[in-house]
Amino acid sequence: MKGPRSELSTLDFGAGGADVQRALAECADKMEVHEGADDSSAIAEEAAVLYANGQNDAAAAVLEVHVTSLPAGQGEFMWMMLLDLYKLTGMRAEFDEHVIEYARSFEKSPPPWDVANAPVKKAKASTPSVALGSSLNEQVAKQFDRVRETARKHGTVKIDLSRLRAADEVGAEMLRSLIHGLRKEGIQVKLAGCASMAAMLGGQVTVGQPENRSLWLLLLDMLQHTDDMDRFEEVAVDYAVTFEESPPSWEPPAMEDFVSTTDVSAAAPEPQGFALEGDLLGASAEGIRSLVAFASDHAVVNVDCSRLRRVDFVAAGSLFNVLATLQGQGKNISLNRVNAMVAALLRVMGIDQVCTLQWPT
Length: 361
Prior knowledge:
The protein is of the alpha/beta class.
């Protein structure tokens, strides 16, 4: 099923404009959907690009005309595209009508109208999230001021630490002050990336050298947030030896914080899971950035795409660039349970060349 790398995959989608327009123009002969004797590639490509651009009705019309002309038992992927499109856009009556035709054509039970692929409803309220950069130093002061303002406004905040690669004494003290200060005010602080940060901090402290006290204390904080009591006790003993004073006591995280703040990497063995949900739009889609951060700590990542509804053309190009880079780093990424409409576009882009791409059949 895999062919040579698509010319589309070499384009710069982050720049916008020229390459995107060029890609759309060239897209017509780049699709590779193999249906045996039934060559449906051009139709699949056209419908996939229409859907990616938000032209749902046009995509449905293209697929409806095509599948109704197919002989019995042929073009199942095209049928799956149409049925998935109905589910993704909430067209229940059209789904019920065509699912009967599908069952007759392939003489088997049709796919269900499942909630996972139905339009995603926005949550009434969500926790505001902020991601720190690669360095924790005095330059984060203004960002922390905004975090305090946001946290006080919403009563909760999530701080993603997974991108941090270095910290100094000033930055560590500022982060500890931010977290402890907000919690004293009764504000819920959820932390992500604690395990990777603990590993980073562990490399910046030295037993027997009484310096970088705030780094030591932040390390102990991170170990409490990951509920790693054994490692906490080891570091606590090293702290006592180094500074000749009693270390902080172990305080297990509250249950509501523990579920939200513990890294997935600390909760389960490889291979690790990650989810892409909703719509991925534009080169800087949040889901793609989060995938990069998650993959930095994992060699194998199984991405659940069962609630991924749409990927636009620019985001697909950005996703290809990211996955190609991760593949070059030796990462093994699998996109699982991708709906047929999105799968068709990802195959146009050659994404199945840089990761494992799976969809329900």
